[in-house]
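Lab notebook: predicted structure, single chain.

Context: the supervisor wants predicted structures on file for every construct in the current expression panel, including those that have not yet been purified. This is the next one on the list. No modifications to the sequence; it matches the entry in the shared construct table.
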Amino acid sequence: VMRVLTSKDVLRPRAKGVKGWVGRMIFDMTPFLFSVMRRIKPVLTVSGFTLTSRYDHVREVFATDSKFGVIYGPKLDIIMGGEPFFLGLGDTPRYRRDTEAMRKVTLSADLPRLAKDVEARAEAIIAAASGQIEIVDELTRQVSFDFLAEYFGIPHPAKGDLRVWATRLFEFQFADSGNDKKLRAEVNEIAPALRAHIDAAIAQRHQCAAKDDVLGRCLVRQAAGEPGYSDIEIRTALIGFIVGGPPQPAMLLPQAMEQLLRRPKVLAEAQSAARSNDDEKLRRYVFEAMRFDPLAPGLPRVALEDVILARGTWHETSIKAGAQVLAAFASAMMDPRRVANPTTFDPNRPASDYMHFGFGLHECFGRHINRATLHMMLKPILKRENIRRAPGPNGRLRKNGPFAERLVVEFD
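Prediction complete. Output recorded below exactly as produced.
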């Protein structure tokens, strides 16, 4: 019987001792190491694994999907019970059919309503706080899971916690390069439980009047006989959305808040945008803050054939079919060859300076929702007076591997 995990179990215990220290040192040193790579060895191959660090090469990897494929398939099979999900597919007819089916039920017309919903949820949390808020769990994780679960039509399970389930599966899919056995044991319980939970939700919704959420829209199209909306296909898409979506704000936004706190003048400007309800200006401040500490160092790809990367340059590199490549978008966004004055905080950068959600065929499916809602989660706290760090360690961003773990902010 699976142990019922609560919100306190969202992140697994931090690595301790030498292992924990080494892990933290690697994360802390990554920006410096990439800056050295960009100058000295922009395409570096070690034991058959290639790292790319310059803007042009990262974009080349992302854009050449016929040669650089995703590696997500095997772990997605475990999460999805063997059912194909478009994140793990190349540019095939099935990929195009499934992504188009989901675009028909996740509409751009929804974005203004979602932005208002997120702001209202965050405002309620801040208004109830007594001058202090923990940004990771109490604000961003709470808001993101609540509004996205409602939008997708996924109820919270009676015997489990959607935040724990989705974050564990996110870690397994995207951050478990070492194939941790304890994590895999949890995944072996969580994945079937999540599939069964969504199956039950779909079955229950078949008995109800249509509801205008993503699940409801899928069922309407299923009833009309459209392809791509079988119960299993709907379940697979909903699992992909809940695993890939709501864990991200609780990683990105505390890191963005930390960057704003480090820059008092910039923080004051972001607060001015929030107070004047200039949401587009606020979005630019938050996204620029995210550039200094993005979701991950990069995204992995695999060479589908023998490839020449950076052809015609002094660092032209041959990559064998089957070799893995890391497209280091965090490094690309700091590359002075394509990003003007990258160490300067500039909220007026062109969109091309950013690769927060990848690029090309497998750019994040939920990127439009992110662009509409991420800054709105921070807007209510930024509207408050005298925002400051909490005293002591709680007032400094603490991480657990790639995940933001704790950041406490005080306000008047």
